[in-house]
Amino acid sequence: MLDERKLAVLRAIVEDYVSTTEPVGSKSLVDRHGLDVSPATIRNDMAVLEEQGFIAQPHTSAGRIPTDKGYRLFVDRLTSIKPMSAAERRAIETFLAGAYSLDDIVTRTVRLLAQLTRQVAVVQYPSLSRSAVRHIELVALSPQRVLLVLITDTGRVEQAAVDLPDAAATVAGLADRIPVSERPNAGAVFSVLLDSLAERHEERVVFGGAANLAAPDFGKGLRDVLEALEEQVVLMRLLGEAAGPPVLTVRIGAETGLQGASVVSAAYGAGGHAVAKLGVLGPTRMDYPSTMGAVRAVARYVGQILGES
To answer: Rounded to two decimals, what is the model's pTM?
Structure first.
């Protein structure tokens, strides 16, 4: 366990390294953070932090940088997440409120998260397995074919063509009752409906802001990050399960399976019921308080919009 002064030194090292990208020395800590102790005392504290694996010395530099373990402790000991300003909250609400469909909500959310955090934004479409059916419509395409349109309470729309064994003219009465003569048609429709509602092995994930990867933070890990963005399954794993009530999750470095990368994610949904997740992927050297605040705020607004739709 670290005492409060060593925790303060670690916080200062993380904050300075995130803002400057330069290894942090003892003198600069004293000058910038008013720790009210001598540089020699800070050097001793830094030696303890390094010995315990919270910071490291890159190359022959006199300064230190946080390790994954150091970032982990920093995040776990955060006393507060940076709140969005009133202007930022209004901007988020206005930007997302203009969405006219689920696709538009997801697209706008990706753009918004990437702009707010300067990281790669990742948004999962609401899962069918966690949604309820709001509306089913059958549209005749031909005498032997109809279009099944399924709309969920999260705004997700699924369409599928259904080949009918009998004439499509009988479809109009399916909603009221299913006489024996119409059961072949009903069976065909319900078969496609069940297929649409079944648990999908693949879920849609959209990402944006890849240009933010141009920063040199990833180093050798950039190739793995780029490959991860191309794989839906990997992106789903990085976001994590959208089970239970909406919560904020931070996975750092080795916890993501990607070198030098961190993922901040949150579940979103209406009425405390999570239907999917969204988040950002960036370097471990990220502004965690601000990023966590932005992800949490956007997830909350997306949930509100889905609940009102």
So the answer is: 0.75
Taking the C-alpha atoms of residue 252 and residue 78, their distance in angstroms, rounded to an integer, is 15
CA distance from start to end of the chain: 49
- What percent of the chain shows pLDDT beyond 70? 75
Q: In whole numbers, what is the pLDDT of the chain averaged over residues? A: 80
Task: Give the other-Cβ count within 10 Å of 19's Cβ.
Answer: 11
Closest by CA position to 268, among listed 235, 298, 232: 298
Q: Give whole-number Cα distances, 212 to 51, 108, 124, 263, in Å.
A: 33, 17, 20, 14
Q: Are 24 and 11 in contact (CB under 8 A)?
A: no
- Strand 261-270 versus strand 273-283 pairing type: antiparallel
- CB count within 10 Å of CB 300 equals 16
| Residues in a beta bridge with 268 | 276
